[in-house]
Amino acid sequence: AAEGAGAAYTLYYWPVAFRGHFAMTVLKYRGVAFRQAPVPELLALKNQQSEECPALFVAPPLLRDEGDDLYLNQMPAISMHLASKLDLLPKDRVKQSLALKMVLDANDVLAELTRNNGSMMWDREAWSEWAKDEVGGRFVKWLQIFEEVGKRSGLGPTSGWVLGTEEPTVADLTCFAVFTNMEHCLPELSPFLRKWAPSIMAACDRLKAKSQGLADMMAAQPQSPYCSGQIEKSIRSMLAAP
Known about the structure:
By secondary structure, the protein is α+β, with helices and mostly antiparallel strands. It has twelve helices and four strands, in the order E-H-E-H-E-E-H-H-H-H-H-H-H-H-H-H. The chain has a four-stranded mixed β-sheet, with helices on both faces. Helix 1 (20-30) runs parallel beside helix 3 and helix 9 packs across helix 10. The longest helix is centred in the middle third of the chain and has 21 residues, at 93-113. The protein starts with 8 loop residues before the first strand and ends with a helix.
């Protein structure tokens, strides 16, 4: 059971499907048991003074790795740490760098979607520019970048993995965590994702078909909350408007 005591990993995050989803995706894909810390436990760590706190972080996600006696925050750092431990890094050094680039790009996509983690709300003019459904739109450019990384590595519409590896790596799992989750929670964006990143989305579909752990995770995942707070309300208001 993922919540079982004595697990090698503990994930500290809010009860939403957002940046915490990246670590969950890697662990679920590998079938590795982990404990989801209750929010009061997260807050107790978060509110401690740095000199006294075993975890040096400002905000979650936060991973506790018992085997390495490590607390690690920052979504990209957690993803790459788990990928290294669970044999999900490409063997090729250049592809390892590309995998990290894709994790960082995914983090940037989420930062833009949430307007720097909710520091601003969306208005119609800003959303229409960012989510413009044509070449030149900011979100379109992000999707084209992910798609083109895959194409240049041999990813096809019906076969292959994002970096041209024999098996899925952290690059594929990152695409799943950002885009499959986005499509699930914000289904109004599905046509957009499928139009501008068709090979990436097809690879995500193949991942879910290949992994019972990922299929079960998504089946249990509610559509809301996504990122939570006023920024989620703002995003959904933009998607609901004509």
